[in-house]
Amino acid sequence: xxxxxxxxxxxxxxxxxxxxxxxxxxxxxxxxxxxxxxxxxxxxxxxxxxxxxxxxxxxxxxxxxxxxxxxxxxxxxxxxxxxxxxxxxxxxxxxxxxxxxxxxxxxxxxxxxxxxxxxxxxxxxxxxxxxxxxxxxxxxxxxxxxxxxxxxxxxxxxxxxxxxxxxxxxxxxxxxxxxxxxxxxxxxxxxxxxxxxxxxxxxxxxxxxxxxxxxxxxxxxxxxxxxxxxxxxxxxxxxxxxxxxxxxxxxxxxxxxxxxxxxxxxxxxxxxxxxxxxxxxxxxxxxxxxxxxxxxxxxxxxxxxxxxxxxxxxxxxxxxxxxxxxxxxxxxxxxxxxxxxxxxxxxxxxxxxxxxxxxxxxxxxxxxxxxxxxxxxxxxxxxxxxx
Length: 387
What we know:
Layout: H1 3-7, H2 15-29, H3 38-55, H4 57-66, H5 96-113, E1 120-126, H6 128-133, E2 135-146, E3 171-176, E4 179-184, E5 207-218, E6 227-230, E7 246-252, E8 259-261, E9 264-271, H7 273-278, E10 280-286, E11 289-295, E12 304-307, E13 323-329, H8 337-360, H9 363-372, H10 379-385
Parallel strand pairs: 1-7, 9-13
Antiparallel strand pairs: 2-5, 3-4, 6-7, 8-9, 10-11, 12-13
Helix pairs in contact: 2-3, 3-4
């Protein structure tokens, strides 16, 4: 290892040049400035070895004659301690690494003192009807709150007199040549007072774990997988910071008759052949209770009718969706000969009519008929009047 190359100096550099090179490189690769960096630590050891060898005349002479450093001689303190930057070399002098590390610790401690509390999550199960109408759930949440004994401060005693290290000033001054540095006192953290004792209940953290029972209101129209936010019911923040929030995820069980699409609710109603052909008023179960739907004459199987504002309530706008009723033609079970004769006679009379409709009505026409039935003023409108 060429020590001159390590310090970036030419062979035979002066002592002042060695000091300047060491000071420049040590500040760059010092472990206090590069915490956890093994490469920087290894480079710093090389820099220290090169400096200790080249700054000592005897060791430097032996190195230049033998081409290697001699570690048998007295070693100087490694790191920035090899320099005395203070005017008089007083005990109050600190190294550059100490100053830099203190700045990092102050910033880190300030960050942790004002950290927002974490959010919490809970799950509730709702029936289909509860999701549409809204519900109230009693839940128990285990959360971190401010310690009751120390009120979240983490300390039990305060104002115990001035700090003996700084005499109550809160800062410690140190000289560097013609420069004077002022830093926060490590004994009192800059407060000027003695450090209070940590709270025994919370260990100085200022937080403790509690189980809280609360009533949570689930709004009407909530959907499966939706979340309800309860502000301020998460974990408490450290150092008086804002608490987190509680998020409740809802799981809605399926309904045997209703199916939800957005804010609309869909259902199916069976009708007989004579009801579809002649028209009828059929009973329909809605989320608000039973009602009557007017089925116009000539209704086809699969046709849909829309009942306005009979669906789910929107959690955003507060407006209700619609109830979409699909009618399905159900054939009766033939039990007697009289019924069979009537159906044969009906088929003979209307067979040509049905075939003509199948030949002249395309799939687009059937879809258009179903679409018109859901518009205002259509047969769906007649169904609404039959509530």
